[in-house]
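Lab notebook: predicted structure, single chain.

Context: the supervisor wants predicted structures on file for every construct in the current expression panel, including those that have not yet been purified. This is the next one on the list. No modifications to the sequence; it matches the entry in the shared construct table.
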Amino acid sequence: MNRIRDQISRLTWIFSVLVRSRFLTLLRPDRYLRMGLSLRRQGGTNAVSGIGLAAAQHPGDTALYDEAGSLTWAQLDARVDALAVGLAEMAGRTPRTVAIMCRNHRGLIEALAATIRLGADAVLLNTGFAGPQLRDVLLRENADIVIADDEFADLIAHSRDANPTMPCLWSWQEGTGLRDDPDTAERLIVRRLGQRPARPRKPGRIILLTSGTTGTPKGAKRATSGSDVMSLAAMLDRIPWRGGETMVIAAPIFHAWGFGQMAIASTMHVTMVMSRRFDPVGTLDLVRKHNASGLAVVPVMLERIIDLPDEVLDARPMPSLRFATASGSRMRAESMIAFMDRFGDVVYNSYNATEAGLISTATPADLRFAPDTAGRPIAGTEVRILDDELRPLPVGDVGKIAVANESSFDGYTSTDTKDYADGYMLSGDVGRFDEAGRLYVVGRDDEMIVSGGENVYPLEVEQVLDAHPGVGEVAVIGVDDEKFGQRLAAYVVRSDASIDADQLKAHVKAQLAGYKVPRDIHFIEVLPRNATGKVLKRDLSPKEG
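Prediction complete. Output recorded below exactly as produced.
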């Protein structure tokens, strides 16, 4: 009986959240019929089935804006169908795996949705890949079609060793946008508009790549069955999305965070506004031009916006903005607070993992209290902090973060595996809880160093250095040391050229234990980052700038 009551309570809560967010609305009876038919021909619900559902509910509403103009949901849905038909004809069968290397524009969304409608697997490639990384991923994922922006033509040509005849379609042509030329996705779409693909025999999968900041990116398979309504409700409960509004998606859609925001937007028939390349001033202008209520970013984007000169920011207020949601890497506390001081309490900072999905979200109130918190776990997600023997630790102690939720992670495409403890997935991060139940991510488990017998997490030191007014950006790593085994080395981009290493060491020593003070401080011009803004610590070298 208690189980039945719990289930009823859960369903009631989900229903109330979906109604409040305007995900569930009253429609004409024929619209419900069209929605059912759309799901049937797509083989059920999946991460991009929202495009067909939105076309059935609100066909004339605007689905997206990009540099090529706008599309309604009906137009986008028809283009996806046409591309799916074209891909199947080009391959002579349903392709197994389609690799997609596109920046944020309609072509990426069309390629992704068309692939899934065929029941094929879609691999989202990082637009910042170098040749060896791209070659390794194409080989490992056994891609038989590539859809890409033509700016990557040379890179792809030199990365197809295993399958030199693999067809490649260009989804965007640099300098011209969309043209009906040979070998373009646009030609397939234009020539097959009005046609629909056959119902897929099996559900397709979406393969998101891990960031690969310390090694080769892994392919994380995401099942596309729509079993995670709870996950959607949990996000809508924490972040104030509203159906039918407008969102600027600046976060790269090939990354787990940007992909999630795109998937939710299409599910909520939220108009998506995007630009192929991030520009901080341009992003503010897009929010203002389209009266966007939401902005999806990775943390470095928010930092670059708030670092703009005051006169630029003063000229661009954003009264329509109700939430700016960020995830993907550490965010500078002072940038986050400065953004909210200027634009209102709108920042929602999430802890998200490619494998586990959304884990926790810090609301503006959480961030005002503790700017470095990852917030509280979302509904339906449980988090434990474990010691090295995988035993639960008390509140306040730092240990391995383990997550249990309804994520649709379906394993890696390689032979690698994810570790579990009593049904909880080890995220690979370490952290702690405070007395109020707020989670703090202290660093990566594999980045912890042992210096003179003491455990040290570089992230903790980065946060202290970040707070120094003379530091613009900083990354801290462990390096080998003959005497202590390992020691810390800090790489600092100065905002004040007069700051020296001794001053920064004294700053750290005043706040942390002596063994946490970096022995080496290197001043450099810029931190190496990938396309999502994460620092590539493997590319740091001990050279003073």
